[in-house]
Amino acid sequence: MDRSWMKASRLSAEFERGVIEFIRFAEINLPSPENNDEKNLPPKSNEHFRCPCVLCGNKKLEIHKIKSIASEMEGKTEEEVERYAEVFRERYKELNDYDRIIKNIERGESRIARKDEIMKAIGKKLDRYKNPWLELKIQYGQNKGKLYNEECDRFMICMTHKLGYGNWDELKAAFRMSPLFRFDWFVKSRTTQELTRRCDTLIRLVEKENQEYDERERQARKEKKLATKSSTPSKRPLPRQAESPSLKKRKQLTMDHYVSSVSLLPMHHIFHHHDYIHVANLNC
Question: Given phi > 0 = left and psi -120 to 50 = alpha, else beta, which region is 48?
């Protein structure tokens, strides 16, 4: 299935055609209730399907996006916001500056997607510690600086994960209210812009550390797989080793000596030893 339409503008005809094709594809490949019973799925799990585009919120239903938008608009209900969204999607090209509006929407969506990436990166970093508020370590490299200490950076990362990225006024208030920085006038006097710049620097360090951590994990899994494969005994039979020329010569001398010694025995003695009957036949 072609997914190039996901990169197009959501209000373009290409995106609309792609959504329609996806819905038709999903309806054709939708599991039947009989298949759901066989797989022990809920009976109504085949009544909904998600858009595969991450920016479209494939982890949420569209109603959650309407609620989020309505919560930011004063004096408007969810029904009014939903009706406006439907009309806007159908008639947005009637606006004189709809190109600028679409670009603003796309920039806003990019910021939302970036915010989600940042929160996931911070969460992934904190998950590696039992108590990140006390144990969190940041690999600074050459970007540690001299103004902010490690305790301040640790608090900033953990509080950003708690409050959400972009809530700089709440972050500034958290620094001022925390007893850890009661006498740290430098941190308490920072503006929201300064806290934003420091937080962005720390986030870049966290993302770089996460990439290095993932790379080490992949390399460790690869080495483990190779070690397991090499330690597993092969089921194929071992090839028969060729005898050395000296060993062949010794065997031939031993056999010649045996045949010559048997040929010197009396005939009746040979016949009494039935084990050497083949030797007697040879002498005859």
Answer: beta
Rounded to whole angstroms, the Cα distance separating 51 from 59 reads: 9
pLDDT confidence band for 77 (50 / 70 / 90): confident
Q: Is residue 23 pLDDT above 60, yes or no?
A: yes
Percent of the chain with pLDDT over 70: 68
> Are residues 136 and 129 in contact, defined by beta-carbon separation less than 8 angstroms?
yes
Task: Tell me the CA distances in angstroms from 281 to 38, 267, 269, 274, 275, one per residue in order.
Answer: 77, 11, 13, 11, 12
Could you read off the pLDDT of 110-159 as tens digits, one per residue? 888 899 999 999 999 999 999 999 999 998 887 677 889 999 999 999 99
Structure tokens belonging to residue 3 = 């997914």
What is the DSSP track for 38-101?
HTT--TTTTS----S-TTTTTTS-HHHHHHHHHHHSTT--HHHHHHHHHHHHHHGGGSTTHHHH
Would you state the pLDDT for residue 284? 44
CA 99 from centroid of its chain's CA atoms? 36
Q: Which residues contact 262 (CB under 8 A, 6 or more apart)?
A: 270, 276, 279
Per-residue confidence band for 236, with pLDDT thresholds at 50, 70 and 90: low
- Determine the angle formed by the axes of helices 62-72 and 78-91, rounding to 10 degrees: 110
* 66 within 8 A of 81, measured Cβ to Cβ: yes
Rg of the chain's alpha carbons, rounded to an integer?
39
Instruction: Count CA atoms closer than 13 A to 252's CA, side-chain side.
Output: 7
Eight-class DSSP state of 131: S
H-state helical runs in the chain: 13-28, 33-38, 62-72, 78-91, 98-126, 132-135, 150-163, 168-177, 185-188, 192-231, 245-263, 267-272, 277-283
Burial 122-151 (b: 16+ CB within 10 A, else e): beebbeeeeebeeebebeeeeeeeeebeee
